[in-house]
Amino acid sequence: MGVNKALIKQAVKQILVAIGEDPEREGLRRTPDRVANMLEELTNGREENVQYTLFEGSSNMVIVAGIRFSTLCEHHLLPMLGVTHVAYIPSDKVIGVSKIPRIVVKYSRMLQLQERLTRQIMNEVSSATGSGDVMVLTEAYHTCMMIRGVRSASPLVSMAYKGKFNDSSLRLEFLEYIRPFRLNKFLT
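That's the GTP cyclohydrolase 1 sequence above. Prediction below.
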């Protein structure tokens, strides 16, 4: 299901009028088009079909850390900006390293809750690799929390893990490895 850009443009014009703006003034004339194009780009994840190639691997933990992402909060349609860290223990094959960031992009290109995003990435990595041993940690600043309401710049951290990552020592090993790539160090 694609984006109905005509309907978005009409709705944006109505919102502009509702907040007391003139949608025909110079700075706003193309805003409905810009918003429609932006929403089309930021919500096309359901159409993303990541192709996986499996390669010979090992049984050692594979980690891709510091994958930057942005997504829209489904409650306020405002951005979340953050990083994702992914680990899995291959059963015997690995996927191409670029596929993990592609999985993150796929699920971040839709209206999201951070906790759901984290689980979706974990489940897709598990499915793509055939591994039941996966851990994902996402950290994000929610602009809906930063610019309205509580006005706090505190990041939200969410984790999803399964299989061997239920062992706290393996989780700690993962967390220790990704420390240099954590949000507070990575986005500054």
